[in-house]
Design goal:
- This protein is of the alpha+beta class.
- About 15% of the residues lie in helices and about 30% in strands.
- The strands form three sheets. Strands 3-2-1-13-12-15-10 form a seven-stranded mixed beta sheet.
- Strand 1 and strand 2 form a beta hairpin.
- The two termini are about 25 Å apart.
Length: about 270
């Protein structure tokens, strides 16, 4: 079997051949704070339920969670449509589908390539998103589907999503199973904040959680197969009034046709 891991990324396949796992999360000195959506705080070893928390807490702004954003029937329909399209092997045991421009983040170059729009099923999802106060002006330009599987040891190492092309809000619909999105920061080296990603929920990462904290998913927190449907908006540079608005407008016009087919992987993508 082969894998798609590059650089420091690993999965059980390449680890079985001697590649070292860099992010093994064996640091027992880390204080783990469990995020409570109701009070928007992280609670140290938070074993209690809201509002009866005890112990130490930290403020953790920049997370919005809408549980049951889709119904069980809608989840099944969306998942079925996603699986009608072949996946591409990705790093760290993931598989992916991309609906967006071809981007080279290191060289800061992008082109439309074969991008022909977001998938048709996303139109109804986007219309529903616009009814949420935090997303009333959200205009997606890119959509990525990631499949995580415990059999493949899927994970994603802590990272920032790109800031050059992608804007303030990262919007993810979590399907098929629960998991945990964890956050770490170089400014707080001994702190990890764990945010629940409930099955069928919508999560928006923005503000400090987007800009100051890296996010990832531990291999151990992928208990069952899950699908992450992530939509991204344009950065100010590519938005109206920005110096690259001409390019941004072309991308948005394509994206919002909702007639897209998966275009494969981007270059150095996050």
């Amino acid at each position: 079997m082969t894998c798609a891991c590059k650089g420091i990324r690993t999965c059980p396949i390449c680890e079985s051949r001697g590649k070292s796992q860099i992010f093994n999360n064996d640091n027992t000195d880390v204080d783990v704070y469990l995020y409570c959506p109701s009070c928007q705080k992280g609670w140290l070893e938070g074993k209690t339920c809201h509002p009866n928390h005890i112990g130490t807490s930290i403020e953790f702004p920049g997370i919005f969670i809408k549980q049951d954003f889709v119904s069980e029937t809608e989840e099944a329909n969306i998942s079925s449509k996603i699986y009608q399209t072949p996946f591409v092997e990705s790093q760290s045991g993931r598989r992916k589908q991309d609906f967006g421009p071809k981007v080279n983040f290191k060289k800061k170059k992008l082109k439309c390539g074969n991008f022909c729009g977001l998938p048709e099923f996303s139109k109804d999802l986007h219309d529903r998103m616009l009814k949420l106060d935090i997303l009333t002006d959200f205009v997606p330009v890119e959509q990525c589907h990631l499949e995580y599987s415990p059999e493949r040891g899927s994970s994603i190492d802590p990272h920032f999503d790109d800031f050059w092309v992608w804007g303030e809000r990262l919007v993810t619909l979590n399907l098929l199973s629960d998991t945990v999105l964890y956050f770490v920061s170089d400014e707080h080296p001994n702190v990890e904040v764990q945010v629940p990603m409930f099955q069928r929920s919508l999560i928006v990462v923005y503000g400090a959680a987007r800009d100051k904290w890296k996010h990832g998913i531990h291999r151990a927190d992928v208990k069952k197969t899950r699908l992450a449907v992530t939509l991204r908006e344009l950065s100010p540079e590519f938005s109206k009034g920005g110096k690259k608005w001409d390019e941004g407008k072309i991308l948005l016009d394509i994206a919002l046709t909702f007639k897209g087919q998966a275009v494969g992987t981007t270059t150095n993508a996050r």
